[in-house]
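Morning F.,

Quick status update on the modeling queue. The single chain you submitted on Monday has been processed. Sequence for confirmation:
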Amino acid sequence: MFDLSKIDWSILDLSTLDLASVPETQWKALLALAVAAIAWRGLRRASAKTSNTLANVHGPGGASFLQGHYSLLFNNDAWSYHRSLAQQHGRAFRVKGTFGQDVLYTYDPKAMHHILLKDQHMYEEPEVFSSNATVTFGPGVLSVVGDRHRKQRKMLNPVFSVTHLRHMVPTFFGVAKQLGDTFMKKASKGPQEIDMVTWMTRAALEIVAQSGLGTSFSPVTEEHPEHSFITAVKELGPLMTVLLLPRLLVVPPVFKYNLGGAWLQRLVVNLVPWKAVHQMRDVIDTMHQTSLDIFEQKRNALAQDDSDVEQRQDIMSILMRENKKASLEDRLSDAEVLGQMSIHQDVQSKLRAELREAYENFGDEPDHDQLVGLPYLDAVCRETLRLFPPVATILRETQVDAMLPFSTPVKGSKNEEMSEVLIPRGSAILISILASNTDPEIWGSDSYEWKPERWLSPHPKAVTDAHIPGVYSNLMTFSGGGRSCIGFKFSQLEMKVILYTLIRQLQFSLPEQKIYWQMTVISSPTIDPTLSDLRPQMPLLVSLAEES
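Structure tokens below.
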């Protein structure tokens, strides 16, 4: 038996449970269901094929049986823990997952190349990820695996090409100008403290709405309230962190075996005396209903050969048109289509000078090639994406027994060196995007510093020789291979359009209160020093920039 007193139950935030509001028979039934799910998970781990080779890989101690190292790896303030692991144990080592499972933690370039590119069919998204993504977003490109994923990527690739993005630039600038006008109006009254999370989220999702979905959530102005979809998206990340343990232990078996069917699962969710569960239910409902309304409107118009839909260049309209033309074998189901849905003043000044010069040459709306050709703007974006990747780690699960090679030998428990390790089928592999992007052996002794200038000269030999398998600029920020971020060019363009519009006219500085970054599912800022308030907040002082 393992010691229950050693389990860190704080990750569940049990203070929000309200058992008094639920009849005894119901909460006991719910408890029994949870225990059964946890037991199933434990038996699955215990019965999984193990390997002396993986078990022999060295790693940190201090793991509990139930949570392993996950409570240390996946908490709001895990930055220093991840950094210390990389510094103490090198590019590959063993950590413990739930129920004592051996997990390989790596950022070794050669290992990542095999996992994400060369042998990617042997390493898929783990069941825990795909099941949770399907429950949250539907059977889209983010959640499906294997042939279904390849089919969806094939259909989506053309609409995320540079050729198509060039046509989106005016739409991006239209939204960015709304945001800029809103900030200019506020700053005209003197320096104003503005929450960047609120307004940047509105702008980013409005760009997605117009160029991706062919609709509008709401103009990015003070006169228009925030759309319910945007509110839901802002709440999603924090809720996923609060519900981490049940998402790991309960969702996979329930989803895999469809326990009880949809109606019973919904009933159980409604009965669970946990506020966070109900909030997550409402967030998913809002996102799904908004997406469904847009999809139905477009499908009906397409069925009636609406000329407006036939001419629209937003991603969803193009996808639906191409899907209509596709063969039955390649065509996506309706559910699959629906499922696609720090401040440095010196750097600001230098960037502002470049942007103002570009404004003199290209005006307030440069085209795609003119925008991406601005060297310092590009350097600022690349360095930010290097040092501050939105997602710190990604998971893979071996589909077969796999011999995984390393560019740097891995240490065994007796300090012996191994150039390759046998990873048994069903094993989890945790790839650290953050550690790869800040590896001092690749990026130098200043790898933890934010220096845009590093991108204005040729890369050091160590960077090119590492052969990082990332899809973007020797970085792992957008992953690599067949499951790399399909919209990474879209997001880069979005960043550059907004910076071009704002930095040229406005100056940003830190407020009096300190801003903390939380290592949530998608890293997010807060002003709460205890990191207990998961609502993302990032107030900055915004003022009019001085004329040069």
